[in-house]
Amino acid sequence: MSHAESALITSPNRPAGNRVQLMATCLCDAFYDDVAKATVEVLEHLGCSVEFPEGQTCCGQPAFNGGDWDSSRRVVRHTVKVFSGDLPVIVPSGSCAAMIFHGAPLEFEKEPDAAEIAALGNRTWELADFIVNGLGIKKWPGRYAAKIAFHRSCHSRGTCSGPASLTLLSSIAGLEVVPFGEGEQCCGFGGTFSVSFPNVSAGMGHLKLDHIRAIQPDVLVSGDMSCMMHLGGLAEKEGKPIKTQHVVQILRDALKNA
Amino acid sequence: MALQQIDQFSAKLRPETRASVYDGSKKGHEKRTSVLFDHYPDPDHLRRLAGNIKQHVVENLDTLLPAAAAALERNGVKVHWASTAEEANAAVLAIMRARNATKMVKAKTMVSEETHLADYLGKNGVECVETDLGEFIIQIDGDHPSHIVKPIIHKNRRDIATSFEKNGLGAYNDDPQTITRRARAHLRKKYLEADVGLTGANFVTTDTGRLVLVTNEGNSRFCLAATPCHIAMVGIEKLLPRETDLGLYLNLLARSGTGQQLTVYTEFISGPRSATQPDGPEEMHVIFVDNGRTDALASDCREILRCIRCGACLNVCPVYRQASGHAYRSVYPGPVGAVLSPLLAGERFPELADLPKASSLCGACNEVCPVNIPIPDLLLRLRNRGKQEGSKAAAAGTPPMGAWSLLASQPFVWKTSLLAGNSLNYIPKSLIPVPPMQTWLRDRTLPAWRGGAFRKWLANRPTPPAAK
Amino acid sequence: MARQPPYPARRQITPPAPSFLLPAPMPSPRDTLLARVTSALAPLPKRAPLPNWDNELVIMRQARGPVDAWTFFAERLKAVNGTPLASTTDLVATLTQGGWKHGYCDPALWDELRPAFDAAGGFNVETTFDRARIDDYQFCITAATAGIAETGTLVLSDLDTSRRLAALSPWVHVAVLRRAQIHIDVPAAIAALPQDPNVIWCTGPSKTADVEGILIEGVHGPGIQIALLLG
After folding, report:
1. pLDDT, tens only, A88-140
2. How many domains does chain A have?
3. What residues 154-213 of chain A have any CB closer than 8 A to a CB of chain C?
4. Of A79, A105, A133, which residue is a domain's last?
5. Contacting residues of B for A186, CB less than 8 Å apart
6. Backbone angles phi and psi of B203, in degrees to 5
């Protein structure tokens, strides 16, 4: 990648099909079990059989972003071992997916097993990207009556995930996606950034919340629970909680009203 | 665990300064976006192309630099070479001494900021006057620029009116029009008295040896219309392979930097004035300056040398907007500075190795960059280098990852921890002695721990319907 | 107040101490710098190629399709707060209205312009420019080399501009432009860059937004930039 073009480009020929592996992500493992459940239910609704490799832990991103690439590579090597085979790997997080298809290859550039690492990236999909561009589904059935603020998480910048999420959400009956100010700006989470730069991070988050509150949405939705944990946590601490959901929870709940 | 310096700086920033920086950056970004997308169907294609051409320049400097120097010399320009800041400053002084020159007017050049030229010349008996309005205000204030193209983005009109009054430029008046008129009157005298005009360069064409300068105020033009000697300090990466490439870069630079189609003045200078022209330099010098650029060139972050100094990445950067340019403790602030400044610092890299940490890696900088520099990737590489070199500045506030990586590479330990974590729900979080968690909790709540709940659901649910 | 750099100045590169046994000549500054460039690039397995590109890419969509050069130029010049004028009568009227009566005119243009000024009366126009009195000239008239329609830009060059200072220092600068000199777009103007040591593109009046982002015109250069179409 001597003169890397854009930061986040997904492989053009990723496999799609109805047998998939689920990478649930550590946040879902620890906090957001309902997001992982919704992912399984939505994928099964689409006719997929979902394998969950038991040995999975984390994608390795915290150490990668922190600059500790030795530690990160240890975790990435473990992840590659756990997700063996050639099935599509589906991740309900733009951030963790980008770690697998972009971040990991970057930190393995000079490593002997770079090719194996890249191979996992070449079959990894963020969930909404997989549904729209892998399975070809552009319209979502059911109904979800709500006014929604959609936060395009930063790791979906330059990928197909943001547009894919919007395609699905906007197609749901009863659902209205309302744009808000400075939508391209980061929420301020950034993993360890939020604890090593707490003032800047909180400042960014509050600005984002101001913009979101200005449109008075019923739900704040994103493809990344990390952004939702940050924004939701800031809002609750202020005593003005805001309802947050993952895109896949909206998709699952819409199906209940099919 | 001390906090990161940029975060501490941001916490202490005057609210007025933060507001000035935020408003200025936001406006700049919005203007850039509306103009680029109004004029071009696919600006991203142009950014990629411009990035690829500049990457060619960066990777072929060994042949392009001598070619550019030869072209300049053919045009009657005297070419000098400076590996360090000291050599660059000394070259300027030597040219001035040879002409018995003692007065310089100076248009904005970032390279001269790098070398602290004005201080150096002052110590050597040369009066050096900044002529860009913002830089002039910075100079009379003894301040430092905080933005690449908007040097006083951190000041409001009241700050400026106060310093004008203090420096004998008229009674307090904070009307921007009055401030500008007073500077106009004061500086025209300086131009006409000066012996030398100093500028930088935005581009140098390798094939035809033209130095290209873009400004809005007309100050560099005045330097070149009123003084008999022109010196340009030029970073070695400023080359363009072909004159025709200017069509691409001029169109991108102003739109990205200030949201203009072109800046007001675009000058193409290929030597001393022509014989028929009464005004302007009879002598022209170009000093090619390295000052750490070859270190950047040898590194795995050489893409940063594509930078054309438009400032778009500063304008869009949420961290820059919160922290201001001075937080970066270097000539180049914002995302580009977070990469470039530590690289240019040579063996003092560890002192500035915290700058690459000042990013949520949101990628907005890459998205607006007219030469498509993958800034987040470069920040990440520098973070890794900071870790390897044991930079204390970089480590501040960063949770150690060694133990975590052991945990996350052993499934049994991982699953046990997930379950054990449920105990968190039964003790007050404020009592948990984990510094990052306490930092998090200062401004945020944490959701309830639900470790292992998904795995339990998956294991215990009825057999799912078979795939179609 | 002294300007104390808050950031570290770069370290000095100390040249190796000269050996008394083998006194080598000091490399020139040029050789030293270029050697560092060469050694930085040496490990690269291959170099990035130089892409070719098509001028069409950078022509703004508003400049596509059939356009009348002067009409388009005038529209774009107005967009940057410049003043397009199509006759000497308009010029004289504009100067009169602004109260700008004392000026300079390139002697090569004066014969062509003089009748309109004489007809209006009350003007003091010099055909030599005295640098000691630059603030006496409220307006200066010089010849343009070309124009660029899509940006409203006036191209000036040493060979055609009688005085660089006259085209810069007055409050009102008038550049005389001929219809045949107008390029439609930036790539065309780049392709036709004059062989001249100094070419300057002026796109509207001198301006700054340094103070709180507020637009102020006439910073060091003209506050009024006029393009006068003659022929």
Report:
1. 999 999 999 999 999 999 999 999 999 999 999 999 999 999 999 999 999 99
2. 2
3. none
4. A133
5. 318, 360, 362, 364
6. -145, 155
Q: What residues of A are in contact with residue C48 (Cβ under 8 Å)? A: 2-3
Same domain, A88 and A125: yes
pLDDT, tens only, C133-157: 999 999 999 999 999 999 999 999 9
* ipTM for this model: 0.95
B364 — contact with chain A (CB < 8 Å)? yes
Residues in chain C within 8 Å Cβ distance of B46: 57-58
Dihedrals phi, psi of B192, to nearest 5 degrees: -70, -25
CB contact under 8 A, B272 and C197: yes
In a domain, residue A157? The reply is yes
Q: List the domain range (segments joined by +) for residue A233.
A: 137-256
CB spacing of A6 vs B366 below 8 angstroms? yes
Shortest CA distance to B459 belongs to which of A37, A98, A140, A215?
A37
- The angle at the Cα of B247, spanning B243 to B250, to the nearest 5 degrees, equals 105
Please name which of B72, B119, B108, B417 lies closest in space to residue B272, comparing C-alpha atoms.
B72
Q: Looking at the structure, do residues B419 and B271 belong to the same domain, yes or no?
A: no
Range of the domain at B229: 42-291
Nearest CB among B65, B183, B221 relative to C168 is that of B221
Pick from C4, C211, C214 the residue to mutate for testing the B interface (most B CBs within 10 Å).
Answer: C211
Which chain C residue shows the shortest CA-CA distance from A4? C48
Are B381 and B373 in contact by the 8 Å Cβ rule? The answer is no
Q: What angle (nearest 5°) sits at the alpha carbon of residue B193, between those of residues B189 and B196?
A: 120
Q: List, as one string, the DSSP characters of B161-208.
A: HHHHHHTTSSS----HHHHHHHHHHHHHHHHHH-SEEEE--SEEETTT
- Give the model's confidence band at B464: pLDDT under 50 very low, under 70 low, under 90 confident, else very high: confident
Are residues A81 and A38 part of one domain? Answer: yes
Domain-located, residue A107: yes
Mean pLDDT score, B372-400? 96
Q: Quick one: A121 and A212 in the same domain?
A: no
| A165 and A204 share one domain | yes
Measure in Å the smallest separation between the Cα of A113 and chain C Cα atoms: 20
Q: What is the rounded CA–CA span in Å between residue A56 and residue A124?
A: 15
Residue A52 buriedness (CB in 10 A; 0-12 / 13-18 / 19+) = middle
Between positions 156 and 175 of A, the ones with CB within 8 A of B are: 157-158
Which bin fits C23, alpha (ψ -120 to 50), beta or left (φ > 0)? beta
State whether A158 and A201 are in the same domain: yes
Give the number of domains in chain B: 2
- Tell me whether residues B360 and A204 touch, CB distance under 8 A: yes
Half-sphere exposure for B430 (CA within 13 Å, toward CB):
2
Question: Which run of H or of E encompasses B29?
Answer: helix B15-39
C67-229 has CATH 3.40.50.2000 classification: no
The rounded distance, in Å, linking the Cα atoms of B334 and C157 is 37
| Alpha helix (H) residue ranges in A93-224 | 94-98, 104-107, 114-121, 127-129, 161-170, 193-196, 198-214
